[in-house]
Amino acid sequence: MKKLKIAFLILASFLVVFLIVTGIRAMMVETKQPKPIPTTEAFDEETAVKHMSEAITYETISYQDRTKFNLNEFDRFIEFLQKSYPLVHEQLELEKVNEYALVYKWKGSDPSKKPIGLTSHYDVVPVLSGTEANWEQKPFSGAVSDEKIWGRGTLDDKIGVIGILEAAEHLLKQNFKPERDMYFMFGHDEEIGGDEGASAIANLMKERGITFEFVLDEGGAIVENMVPGVNQPVGVVGISEKGSATAELTIEGSGGHSSQPKNRTNIGRIASAIAKLEETQFKGDLRGPGEDLFEFVAPEMSFGMKYVFANKFIFEPIIEKILLGQPATAALIRTTIAPTIFQAGEQYNALPEEAKVIINHRLMPGDSLEDVKEFIEETIDDPDIKVTVTGNEASSVSSIDSWQFKTIQQAARNVYTDAVIAPYLMFAGSDARHYDPVSKDTYRFLPVQITGEDLNRMHGTNEHVSIKNYLNAIKFYIEIMKEGNK
Predict the structure, then answer these.
(1) Are residues 274 and 156 part of one domain?
(2) Of 71, 259, 300, 428, which shows the fewest CB atoms inside 10 Å?
(3) Which helix (H) or strand (E) holds 159?
(4) Residue range of the domain that includes 329
């Protein structure tokens, strides 16, 4: 009995020490948010809204088949820019790459400093045929209604192009003189990969030996109710984007009449392979940009959540299990598996001689195309299924400790003073990846506060942006131009 009592006291003492140590760790977590310096910049908001409204009316649509491009609309859009931003076109150098990608250079006073680059794109995706009647305002009307600007491109991504130029025009009126060169780089084919836009611009910069301190593109945004335990809006800045790979699994063999099937048919074997992959999945691992996100938001969490993340070395398995419970958070910590196309058979009573599935994978930084291929082959364990994997791996991971990231944080906080600005891993693709070879760091951030519903509208029906959000985007770009030149 005495030994049991001693053991209990030892255990209780250990538990007390554990709670004290872990509690102190939670209380010692310090905020990673810079103190906001609220912007006081004032500009002609009415004219800015008119410019954005008109920008939407130009149907600068990207098609996979480039012969479908209506280049007259692209020409008209460029003419509109020249007319709307006279000081930009008088004082900045404009160069056209492949005729339609635009590069503006604002020369700085100190040539010893590396330039910064702000990039966006002015092409948009088509409106799905047959859905036009579902729009509350016509998709290329640029209508201003209910304190919103409506139309394709309001969020993706003419808001970036117009926001940057509005900011530059305003600063030119104020006789602002940048210390370092600034480049504004606007692609015209981002929606189909950016080969003739951002990629060509980046190659040109490489040829000229120009490297950037940082390049900022579209990407994350400011979203409410994004992180459990955080009451403030969270603005996420992409410091990397996942790779995108296409895996093709194919099996061939004799077909025959459906009245005499083998126990394992071609369709059955491919279906079994898919089932094995979905049941197994890549291992979740809270590391890299995903881990960085929680390090930045943990200090702003309620104490219970802060306690867990401050002691991540203990609770990591539990955290990972929770994150893997939802598709959005699971994608943050593992390479994903998404079967998207299944092809087999042509006749209801004939066994197909070939079955094939296409699987889209979004790769975590650190996972290679070869890793994906090996994982698939080991998991399905069927030597008769041929596996090929093509695509691109994740982009490089940009710094979160540098002045470059802190500049973006500060600019965002100056406009959205109550937002928590944190790094994250971007799931989709952007033009930013093209600039990796010519920039020390590349970041992805759309400076608007939006809802999950807004995200669905970007390539869907009823895309629009609130006037307040649009004006805040201009303010952000003003702030980033000033903060980046300190």
Answers:
(1) no
(2) 259
(3) helix 158-173
(4) 241-392
| Location of structure tokens 């530059």 | 168
- Residue of 358, 153, 144, 140 whose CA lies nearest to 246: 358
Q: What is the pLDDT of residues 53-88, one digit of tens each?
A: 999 999 999 999 999 999 999 999 999 999 999 999
Are 171 and 305 in the same domain?
no
Is 273 inside any structural domain? yes
Question: DSSP 3-state assignment of 18?
Answer: helix
- 432 CB neighbour count, 10 Å cutoff: 27
Question: Of these residues, 123, 156, 196, 431, which one is catalytic?
Answer: 123
Helices (H), 233-302: 266-280, 288-297
What are the residues whose beta carbons fall under 8 Å from the beta carbon of 74, sequence distance 6 or more? 58, 60, 100, 188
Per the residue annotation, which of 166, 189, 190, 479 is the catalytic one? 190
Assign residue 315 a region: left if phi > 0, alpha if psi is -120 to 50, beta otherwise?
alpha
CATH number at residue 365: 3.30.70.360
Q: Are residues 279 and 327 in the same domain?
A: yes
Quote the CA–CA distance of 453 and 463 in Å, as a whole number.
10
Domain count for the chain, please give it: 2
Whole-model pTM? 0.90
- For residue 249, the one-letter residue type is L
Q: Are residues 200 and 89 in the same domain?
A: yes
Res 376: pLDDT: 97
Mean pLDDT score across all residues of the chain: 91
Is there a domain that residue 196 lies in?
yes
Residue 200 and residue 280 in one domain: no
| 123 belongs to the catalytic site | yes
> Does residue 255 fall inside a structural domain?
yes
Q: Does 75 participate in catalysis according to the annotation?
A: no
Task: Name the residue among 79, 91, 84 with its Cα closest to residue 172.
Answer: 91
